[in-house]
Amino acid sequence: MDKTQIIGLIAAAITIGAMFELIRRQSIKEKYTILWVLAAIGIVTIAVYPQILDNIADLTGIQDGPNVILAVGGLAITIVGVQLSIEVSRLEDRSRALAEEIGLLRLEAQKQREQD
Questions:
Q1: CB atoms within 10 A of CB 39
Q2: How many CA atoms lie within 13 A of 109 on its CB side?
Q3: Rounded percentage of the chain residues whose pLDDT exceeds 90
Q4: 54-80 pLDDT per residue, tens
């Protein structure tokens, strides 16, 4: 194993360890951790078998193996960005609905106090 492979394995181990620690502290939901664990598995795979990048590059017509990482990373960031935008929109709608409900409950409580 060369130095690059060892660094890749260390990076993957740190990523997996950090994700388990975040789950333990309940700082991150399990559904998001799956993406990070898959990324760590990908790092391990590439670190142990670096020729995979060249094989994928040849199959997809990409000029160099490392460009595959860039392409996959860009695609992953786009997918995560869209997913997070959907989640933020959903939470924004939920917050608005809860704020409206609180306003109605306060109005109802105020009317109840005025009647008493």
A1: 18
A2: 6
A3: 45
A4: 999 999 999 998 899 899 989 989 998
76 exposure class (CB count in 10 Å sphere: 0-12, 13-18, 19+): middle
66, burial (CB in 10 Å: exposed 0-12, middle 13-18, buried 19+): middle
Helices 65-115 & 51-60 angle (0-180, nearest 10): 90
Percentage of the chain exceeding pLDDT 70: 100
Given a contact cutoff of 8 angstroms between Cβ atoms, the answer to whether 33 and 23 are in contact is yes
Name residues whose C-beta falls within 8 Å of residue 15's C-beta, 6 or more positions apart in sequence: 36, 37, 39, 40, 43
How wide is the angle at C-alpha 62 spanned by C-alphas 61 and 64, nearest 5°? 135
